# Entry
Amino acid sequence: MNSNSIVPTLGQVITHKRTFTQQDFNQFAELSHDDNPIHVDPKFAATTRFGRTVSHGMLLYGVLCGVLSASFSSARQLEQELIFPNPTYADEEITVRLEVTEIWPASQLARLKTTVTRADGETTCEGQMLIRWKE
# Structure
């Protein structure tokens, strides 16, 4: 992850690699009370179109928020839009990417494109966020 800064710049890209384990999925399910078997039951998940357990969407969102906080210490998220076109699996590396696509310095606002991709290049989460920062 890039070092923490205050002010985003147009075109700035931040990336972070992560590999979730089944234990991560299980712990998130315990904390969130979302114990849908697609996330926590490998035997059940094997019978689905995914063939194995998949990440909670909000777990991915949490990682996006963490990368934002680590990258821009004073940033506050105002809006977030996300879609999940493909699954994120346990034990496969993902890359979280934030890209500053618009910036309004006078109002201290920026729009960031957010993506999560698997090592095979498939996008598992994409969207955008609007942030405000303090200098």
User: Anything to note?
Assistant: The two ends are 21 Å apart (CA to CA). The mean pLDDT is 94.
